[in-house]
Specification:
Blueprint (H helix, E strand, L loop, with lengths): L3 H4 L1 H10 L4 H11 L3 E5 L5 H8 L5 E6 L2 H7 L6 E4 L11 E6 L10 H14 E12 L15 E5 L2 E14 L2 E9 L7 E8 L3 H10 L2 E7 L13 E8 L1
Parallel strand pairs: 1-2, 1-4, 2-3, 4-5
Antiparallel strand pairs: 5-11, 6-7, 7-8, 8-9, 10-11
Helix pairs in contact: 2-5, 3-4
Length: 243
């Protein structure tokens, strides 16, 4: 099931505006440009692959996402392959030199079975020397504690102001954090509200899931400036290969 956050056309149109100035693209884009064939899992509006094509990437670029509203934005560029599906439902065999999951898309894989099936599909899709790159928020720094209405963000698009605010639910179960995102604008009749759940895996658990899928970590960073991962790092940025 796709959260309304991703399936609502109005929110899909605003997604890139809310994500402007993404630091993760500075990290991922050079890796994408150096790979002949790239799969972006949970590609959303496809911004990363569009940037790669604009910069001259001439190989295969494929974006995968289950949300039709997001892919409607992505399909505005027709020289990239767009596929509407979950990664666990595809059966690509050794087709991609690089698979990426950006924007903390990895964290929407909340169930063990879902995570194992997705990682197995990614491992299968990689070429023999292929790489899988992704990031997940480090649970040790408890970043969700900043997801409060007081930290709301407002953007202006086409003269219309839209505010996004978050509220974490009272119950945090294990490594799962559920929260509500609310989008409002003076020009809208009512706010758009979506509920989501993300998984905050610690590094040890993450390593076990990767190993179980036939993937081995070869590089790991704690932030987008490539500083080494520590317990106080905001991110767990991982580059893995097939075993």
């Amino acid at each position: 099931m796709v959260d309304r956050h991703f399936s609502e056309p109005k929110l899909a149109e605003l997604y890139d505006a809310f994500c402007a100035g993404r630091r993760d693209f500075d990290f991922y884009l050079p890796k994408v440009m150096s790979a002949d064939s790239v799969l972006d899992v949970g590609c959303g509006t496809g911004e990363l692959l569009r940037l790669a094509r604009q910069k001259g990437h001439s190989g295969r670029l494929c974006g995968l996402d289950p949300a039709d509203a997001m892919l409607q934005q992505a399909r505005k560029r027709c020289d990239i392959e767009w596929v509407q599906a979950d990664i666990s439902s595809v059966d690509w065999r050794e087709q991609f030199d690089l698979v990426v999951m950006t924007g903390h898309a990895f964290q929407v894989l909340t169930e063990d079975t879902q995570l194992r099936e997705s990682l197995a599909a990614i491992q299968s899709a990689l070429t023999h020397d292929g790489r899988f790159m992704f990031e997940t928020r480090n649970p040790l720094v408890r970043g969700w504690e900043a997801w409060v209405p007081e930290n709301a963000v407002t953007i202006e698009v086409g003269g219309t102001k839209v505010t996004m605010s978050h509220q974490v639910d009272n119950t945090i179960a294990g490594d799962l954090v559920s929260f509500t995102a609310a989008y409002s604008s003076p020009s809208w009749d009512s706010p758009i509200v979506s509920k989501s759940t993300l998984r905050f895996l610690d590094n040890e658990s993450l390593s076990k899931f990767l190993s179980g899928a036939g993937l081995a970590t070869i590089e790991q960073y704690g932030d987008w400036d490539c500083r080494p991962y520590t317990d106080s790092s905001p991110e767990i940025i991982t580059i893995a290969r097939r075993v």
